[in-house]
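The protein record minuted underneath.
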Amino acid sequence: MKKATQDGPQLAWLCAVIAAPVSVGLLVWAGLQGELAKTWPAGLVSMVLHTAYSVVLRWAYKAGDFNVVYSVSRGATPVIVTLAAIPWIGSPPPQVWVGVAAVVVGVMVMDRVASGRGSLPGVAVAGCSAAYTLWDGYAIASLGVSVLPYLAVTNVGQLAVLSLVLGRRRRLDFSGWRRAVPIAVLTPASYGLVLVAMSISPVSTVAVGRTLNVAVGNLLGIVVLRERLTLVSVVGLTAVLAGVVLVSIGA
């Protein structure tokens, strides 16, 4: 993951190129439906926030230890989102706060953050992640933009920016397209589901739910890679799952 992040701009450009035909088609469809006028400004803001997140993430992995940055950023994001969303959706009930705390503890336990560099970079990454999460939730739930054209605007905008930046450095290269194809398909598909979830659930609930990928990663390590199931893993998994359940019930 860290290597992919270091190769980020080139890989992101390839993914945007691969997705461009579908994105352009969606924009044409949105224009014919009269939805483009309200979608493109929100989509461009989202593109800027996601790009800032990518830049900060690359810096964080260079400045700190991977496990610390990853764990702190994943654990802190739902806390920041929940706090920032209070003026928007009101203060959540007590069980939501208990659930958020359980998720944070579970993530930290599973990744065993006891020492190492990267706490402050991890918080910076969490801040960027929270920013695009909150904006995307606002765009979907309050502005009423459609998910697919919204993703298309973000992709086309990112393609234009990356083409300009990489073109000046003469780094436009198609050689890694095979590695980019599954990412170009799965990344927007998975985040599209996140945006759909934001249309039916509070943004803080979705932010907490996204930390399940840490639990899933640990489970896959145990089942697929035959990693040893330890007491630490059990405690961490239980805390994350219990926290997500509490947040879902309290939302």
Notes: Confidence is low (pLDDT under 50) at residues 1-6.
